Amino acid sequence: MNNGMKFENLEKVYDLLARAIDEVGPANEAIFLSKVCLVLS
């Protein structure tokens, strides 16, 4: 039984996350990633 994400979906999430990090810029990157971690916890 495998309830994990399909590779294609995981790749989409990774791409969207990378785009969002680029969009917030280097000055806000750490804050953005901290917020992502809090949401995922």
Textual characterization of the structure:
By secondary structure, the chain is mainly α. Helix content is 73%, strand content 0%. It is built from 2 helices and no strands. It is flat, with a radius of gyration of 12 Å. The model has no long low-confidence stretch (mean pLDDT 94).
> Helicity range of the residues?
over 70%
How does the helix and strand content classify structurally? mainly alpha
Number of helices: 2
* Distance between the ends: 24 Å
Mean pLDDT: 94
Question: What fraction of residues sit in β-strands?
Answer: under 5%
Q: Count of DSSP E strands? A: 0
Uncertain runs with pLDDT below 50, 5 residues or more?
none
Query: Largest sheet, described in full?
Result: none
SSE diagram, text form:
Layout: H1 7-24, H2 29-40
Q: Can you give me a brief rundown of this structure?
A:
The chain is mainly α and 41 residues long.
Quick tags:
41 residues; mainly alpha
